[in-house]
Every structure is written in structure tokens, then in C-alpha cells.
Design a protein that fits this description.
about 280 residues, alpha/beta, Rossmann fold, seven-stranded parallel β-sheet, 12 helices, globular, disordered C terminus, binds NADP nicotinamide-adenine-dinucleotide phosphate
Amino acid sequence: MKYIVITGVSTGIGRDALRLLHKKGYYIFGSVRKEADAKKLTESYPERFTPLIFDVQNHDAVVKATKVVFETCDALHALINNAGIAVPGPLQHISEKDFERQLDINLKAVRRITNLFLPLLGAAANFKKTPGRIINISSISGLFNSPFNGAYSISKHALESMTDVYRRELRRYNIKVIAIEPGPIQTAIWQKSLNSMDKYSHTEYNDVLQKADMMIEKSEKSALPVSRISDLILKCLTSGNPKTRYIVHRSKFLFKLLAFYLPDKLVDWFIHRTLTRGNRHRPI
Ligand SMILES: NC(=O)c1ccc[n+]([C@@H]2O[C@H](COP(=O)([O-])OP(=O)(O)OC[C@H]3O[C@@H](n4cnc5c(N)ncnc54)[C@H](OP(=O)(O)O)[C@@H]3O)[C@@H](O)[C@H]2O)c1
């Protein structure tokens, strides 16, 4: 039996990864925060699924809930760090608490959870099983910085760094570490972000923030189905030689042009124009 831990399986990318990987015969330990989600998923997956109930911010609860993983198996095929949130808003006005929460969930918790499972993934001199793989669900926001999405972009840029560092450090154990970098994907994260700019309406940014919800709705329309990411996760698990990072975007070429090749000042101008004139595209 091949065992996989996925964080954040209640909705979205995590939920669909659970669906596909379970169908392919893997045993999934999936994290949720609510008892009700654990119950619902256990009904849907009566076999080869164990819910782990924790909030990634509460590491004592994580350690307690994941004891069952260590009791059930002596090796993990993969750890998929998926749980994440987006805290939009102008960097100037996001509260310290919200900024810290963004970094803690999307970044610091990934390190805590990864370190917890490293012995089961093969980071031990006497490990006799096939080494596991670590897949971090990053974002194109880990490659490109958008205004008013700064806290999220910073968390994902740092996650990209963390992925590279782990990959290079864990090479000695042959543990492959992969970043998946999606653009807009059809999940609840979009709805959760709607109206979240309202609390900044009293600031000098109000004129551009008013467009934010409209842009989110437009992005949602162009978002790719969640199965695109699940299929890619499966590929990362089954390929003999997976890439170190995968961009998933409807217009990959245009995104790469914007992120890697155009001069900064031209991109700054384009973003400014988009925000001030209500262009059709959200700068992501
Ligand atoms: N959707 C996109 O367009 C997109 C694009 C690029 C990257 N991503 C990344 O994909 C990952 C999954 O996001 P998604 O789009 O599938 O959004 P989602 O549907 O909102 O799923 C997020 C998952 O993370 C869990 N989670 C959030 N905060 C948590 C916490 N403190 N402790 C434990 N679990 C927590 C949620 O649990 P609850 O249900 O309990 O809140 C949920 O299961 C994230 O890392 C996100 O940054 C998404």
C-alpha cells in the first residue's frame, strides 16, 4: 500500500486530489479543520482514507492528529502541502495579525509539517524503503508580484525558496521536492476573497480596490478546472523524472513573458493601466 498525506482536503484542489489519488488506489491521510468535513469525507471514502483533524497553525494539534500516520505506516509515498489562504489588501494597510496569519498558514506551517514527516519520507540514514516525494502547491503568485495581493505573493515566493532549499538539501536522500504553480483554478478560494477588500475602502486606494471584486469574478470565469492540478499531481507521483516546478496557466506563454522577459517598468505601467482603466485582465 502507498500512503499519501494531503493537507486541506475539505474543498478545492486538495479535495480533488483526494478523489483522483484515492481512485488510483493510494491510501490517503487528508487534513480538515472541521469534524463535519471529516465525517462527510469518511462516508464518501470508507476505505483507504483517514481524516486528520487540525488547523495547521496549531502545531501541537498537528502532532497529535498525525500520530495515526506514524502508527499505520513506516513510509510515506508523498506529502502534498496544499492547505492555504489568500489575504488580499494593500501591503500598507494589512494588519500585522493578518500578515502573520498569511505567512504562517502558507509558509511556516509547510516547514513544520514537512519536518514532521521527513523521517517517513526517507530523511534518515537507515531508511530502507523507496524515498517519498514532497509536492508544494505554490502559485504563479510565487513567480510574479501583483499589487493588493502582496501578502499572498510574498508567502508563495518564500514557498518557492523553501521548495528549492528542501530539494537541494534532501537530494542526498533522493527525496524529490516539486512546486506546482497554478494560475486561476476553479475553487472556493475565489469566493472567499470576494468583498475582502471592503475593509480598506476608507483608504486612499479605494478607487482601484473597487475594481477588485469585479476582477476576481472575471478571473473566476477564465479559471481552469481543478482536475488540471490533480492530473498533474498524479504525474508528479508517477513520473520517474518529474520536473522541479510546473506552471499551470491558460496563457502560459503570456504569463512567462510578463513574469520573466518584459522590463519591470513596462509591466508596472501595464498593471497601473489595468487597475486605473478597468482593463479586461487581472494582473496575476
Ligand atoms: N484556486 C486557485 O486559483 C489557486 C491558484 C494558485 C494556487 N492555489 C493554492 O492552492 C492551494 C489550495 O487552495 P484552493 O484553491 O483549493 O482553495 P480552497 O478551496 O479554499 O482550499 C483551501 C484548503 O486549505 C484549508 N485550510 C485553510 N486554512 C487552513 C488552516 N489554517 N489549517 C488547515 N487547513 C486550512 C481549507 O480548509 P477549510 O475548508 O477548513 O477552510 C481548504 O481545505 C492553496 O495553497 C492555494 O494558495 C490556488
